[in-house]
Amino acid sequence: MADKPGLPFGRSLAQSPPLTAGILLGLGLAVAYALIWSIQELSTFLTALIVASFLAVGLQRVIATMTNRGMPRWLAMTILFTGLALVFCGGIAAIIPALVKETTEFVENVPGYYQSLMDSDLAARFGGESGLLERLQNAMTSENITTALGGVAGGAASAATGVVWTITTALLTVFILASYNQLRQGVIRLIAASKREKADRILSGILRQIGAYLIGALAIGALAGISAWIFMAIAGIPYGALLAILVALLDLIPQIGATIGAVIVTLVALAVSPMTAVASVIFFIAYQQVENWVIYPTVMRSAVKVSNLAAIVAVLVGGTLFGVVGIVLSVPIYAAIRLIGKELVQPRLDNS
Description:
This protein is an all-alpha fold. It has a domain at 212-352. It is built from twelve helices and no strands. Helix 2 packs across helix 8 (196-235) and helix 10 (257-272) packs antiparallel against helix 11 (274-303).
């Protein structure tokens, strides 16, 4: 009997013998399991690849500005990454003196801290210096020492892993940016020839909005850091440059990053005086209102045209599903999905 036309394998799965149907179903489940397992095992790499791709798209706007004026692409990339390296080295140069100073002061004050602890009422409740030393000796068992060393080793391994993946993400960004045009053309060539023009238009819109969002987010973060640095210089809060860099970086996290930076600065200000901490709270509350209602909407409305409600919902969903990376990338991903829906889904609904 001839196979029925229109079926991919001559007969449907329901019409196949039980053994064949079982084998095909088992193969399908095995492929699905292998795919899920691969995604789980490669989750860290995929995250680094996605972040690197978004960074490359954002940096491409800067390179395109230079290449459109006749500059060779290799020279534009050299200038861009040299500038980023100088900014990074400047940040490190601002952090290291503060860390060295703080460490030196802490080491010098350790005897005073120890004596203050021994003279405190808390130490007296545990039998004074002798009682605390006895409790410490009882706690220094081999099992506790092994657990503590394991925790320290685990923390050091996690920190080293973070540094490695940060460097990996930076290198992936460079490689993606170097072959940006080839990758873009390769993606378009995967589309049927009759639909490539429309696909190219949609892809250009998505890349343009992602790049605009990243540039806008960097501008907002830089403005937050500069404003915080000016305030801390006036208020006399120490380590203003270091804290300003931290505020600028945290401000890249939508909705919640600025609040985290404000809390850190306020805690440092509390060490200066309670009034300084109050002034810090007032400043950051006022600046947060200006950023939320003036700066952020103005920049993002012109960049990705996303409303505040959509941005908040996207951030909540992204953070719940993918953590910090999801929070950072949620708004441009939403803008890309909305653009695809506008170009593909809405025309079909209007014509139906």
